[in-house]
Amino acid sequence: MSMNLNGILPVLPTPFSAAGTIDPGAMARITAFALDVGATGVVFPGFASEVDNLTAEERETLLREVVRVVAGRIPVVAGASAPSAEEAAGHARRARALGIAHVMIQAPKSVGVDKAAVAAFYREIAEAVPGIEIVLQNAPAPRGSDLKPDVLLEIISGNSAITYLKEETIPAGPAISAILADKPAHLKGVIGGGGARYIIDEYVRGACGAMPAAEFTDVHVALDRAFRSGAVEAARDLYTRTLPLLLIQANLRMAFTKYVLTRRGILTNHICRAPLPAFDAVDRSEIDAWLGRVADLLVPAASLQAAE
Predict the structure, then answer these.
(1) Is the model's pLDDT at 2 over the cut of 90?
(2) Which structural domain, as residue segments, surrounds residue 17?
(3) Which is deepest, 1, 114, 199, 297, by most CB within 10 Å?
(4) Cα distance between residue 92 and residue 148, in whole Å
């Protein structure tokens, strides 16, 4: 029986060794960090994992490591987006073989935005992998298809395997409200994206959780808990304090995530494969300055459990 998805489910980055190979030991440390600070689920691989720069063997090796460390304590959402429904179904089958119940899939741009074509794409996956739960990822252009709420509702209504929607179009708030106002019974919830840069608006509108990058999982967990306990102003304060850093992350992407995790003692380098904007000494100085302003919110690395 699968666990429901809610709260903070960080998208884990892919760590690389100094030689440029994947680093399963570092993957274990990142996963253990997410567990230790209270993540209610983890996502791998996703866009923030440099998934386009991983071989099939590399992603499966790292996904196995995530599953091993999690050991059934929280849900693992496996990224299964692919250029075709057949390939996405293959990723989903491998995830199921590892005991994973949820896969996150964005329809490829080649499918277009016609609701019949997109519905057929997801239907083919659901039929090929019985019992799988699909998180439909609706990313903004140019990466995603920017599907509109009426299109999403029709697709979801016709496919009971789609149990969650990750809505990260910009602005996501009105879309979340529209989906939740008319959602089919089998849709368990809408999850926010956008790197948690709009998380308060998403939560106010009824999002059941968020899938930000992993570097501030502890702060996002505290924000989530505050909001859900009714301490909305405390949640807003945490949001305000982290927002300058999240704005930098929007530009530097995975390089930022890995740099912060390195500064926090969880990673030993911030090597990326993906082509990213230049990252210079001024960027590092600014990030360090802003990190200093939120140091009291960050769980010290020394207090975290070591990955087994």
Answers:
(1) no
(2) 7-303
(3) 199
(4) 25
